[in-house]
């Protein structure tokens, strides 16, 4: 269909400049739909052969609505746009409704979304059936954008595709819903005590977690609804983490977003320390979850009896370790073989029944089993090399080698 013919067809009904222009949104960039519509209406009116069209097309549709301003109110009502019902002349009122709701929240960026009634959607679809969808933009897209511009002038915040808050207005009735987006805080933690899980434990077996200890000051300041901790891996509950482990703390539905990260980092409870706090985002959560960083562990090992010289033999552990899912976790993880590299190893003699071993290895190597051998499920192991049962008495993560992390 030619552009002119399409415009003619649209104008067989009373349609506002926005709704007219929107059907040609992909043509003539740099104009608003309203400007585009006005231009088309003028061009069509100028080129129109009055006699030719008067019979089947109402001329007033081509001249715009100002044409009717001097007529009775009743008539003006009838001439409202049959697609949007004059919503684009009403944006200020709708924006005012949003601004009123917005006062209850703290945010510096926002987005506006619309939920259109079935009638609004089907009127637009009926038009598309008549004139096609070449060059068009959906009503919803224009409303979101144009409403966003007006709201931006009423609230002290920027319209932004990655907003702090979303306002969703249902049209035509104008009720406003609010979605508060989470705050993400990147940091690195140390866990200086044993016996605390990283995240909330489903049963009441553990009273607290790193997540809960860490979240307390943040929840107080943000008045958030809840929180989540995303760690770059996790240490065993009974292991300390003396190396700095990257994490992102997510605060859901925060009421306030003003954070003094430096002072907050000092308010975190006993046993947990954090550093390098900064604001983050969901992409960083994904990155952290996917990152396979090398770790260095130090284990205190108990055995039956060794000499200093025996410890030298443990160098044979450097290389590939073949590991079946440990017995202690096999009930919740798939039972399978894995190969992980052990990259370096240091040992320290403490007594004939005690030594420490420090290993750097690929992510996913189970160090307790590297020591014990896990009844032959891990090979080689300290037990297999020393030919006696060895057990890991204490375990610490001493370094997390995440080279890709941004500082
Ligand atoms: Zn309209």
For the structure shown, list the relevant keywords.
binds zinc ion; alpha+beta; 15 helices; ten-stranded mixed beta sheet; THUMP fold; 3 domains; four-stranded mixed beta sheet; Alpha-Beta Plaits; elongated; 407 residues
| Regions with little confidence, pLDDT below 50 for 5+ residues | 65-78
Straight-line N-to-C gap:
56 Å
- What is the count of DSSP helices, taking H or I runs of 4+ residues? 15
Radius of gyration: 33 Å
Structural class: alpha+beta
Strand content: 25-35%
- List of distinct ligands in this structure: zinc ion
Shape: elongated
Q: What's the number of structural domains?
A: 3
Query: How many beta strands in the DSSP annotation?
Result: 14
- Main beta sheet: 10 strands, mixed
Give the name of the CATH superfamily of the largest domain.
Answer: THUMP superfamily
* CATH topology category name of the largest domain: THUMP fold
pLDDT averaged over residues = 90
Would you identify the CATH architecture of the largest domain? 2-Layer Sandwich
- What's the level 1 CATH class of the largest domain? Alpha Beta
